[in-house]
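Weekly sync, protein design subgroup
Attendees: M.S., D.O., the rotation student, P.L. (late)

Item 1: inverse folding check
M.S. brought a backbone from last month's batch and wanted to see whether the design step gives back something sensible before we order anything. D.O. pointed out we never logged the input encoding, so this time it goes straight into the notes. Structure tokens as presented (169 positions):
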């Protein structure tokens, strides 16, 4: 995916993709939100929890960056090669959460993510020489990876499940 041209473009992409995901979720019944979608056992609720957890991490990391520090993104002893294991661990830790709590967090974080990105100086977000948060990548990539690059992956998993249900009838 191409880089956003500036902070406002970054924020607009977050809003557009978040709205697409929110619209899809809004069209699901409570029961549909709890049905496992595939072999991994994740329901739509679990996909939302996953998004919420990563958005919370992003907000925390951006607050650390605001202080001029480099965020510790991974738990001690883990590398990015352990990402699937970390996601699975997070899934297990959160699978019993109530749907209403998950959706409340999801709705609250939509605004919080945009607010923290808006508060981050544009040169820090967009600059190639921005704080080295991960292997020299610009900070906007951390934002994209936890927002508008991330949302479609989970939206598409839910849409694929929906298509399978409608074509199987």
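Designed sequence read out in the meeting:
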């Amino acid at each position: 995916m191409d880089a956003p041209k500036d902070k406002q473009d970054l924020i607009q992409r977050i809003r557009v993709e978040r709205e697409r995901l929110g619209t899809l979720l809004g069209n699901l019944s409570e029961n549909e939100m709890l049905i496992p979608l595939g072999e991994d056992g994740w329901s739509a609720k679990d996909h939302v929890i996953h998004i919420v957890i990563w958005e919370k991490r992003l907000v925390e990391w951006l607050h650390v960056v605001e202080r001029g520090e480099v965020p510790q993104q991974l738990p001690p002893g883990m590398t990015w090669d352990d990402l699937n294991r970390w996601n699975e661990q997070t899934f297990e830790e959160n699978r019993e959460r109530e749907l209403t709590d998950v959706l409340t967090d999801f709705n609250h974080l939509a605004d919080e993510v945009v607010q923290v990105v808006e508060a981050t100086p544009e040169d820090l977000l967009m600059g190639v020489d921005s704080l080295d948060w991960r292997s020299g990548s610009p900070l906007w990539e951390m934002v994209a990876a936890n927002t508008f690059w991330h949302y479609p992956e989970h939206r598409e998993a839910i849409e694929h499940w929906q298509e399978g249900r409608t074509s199987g009838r």
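Discussion: Residues 44-66 form the longest helix (23 residues). The chain has one domain: 7-74+81-162.
Action: P.L. to compare against the previous round before Friday.
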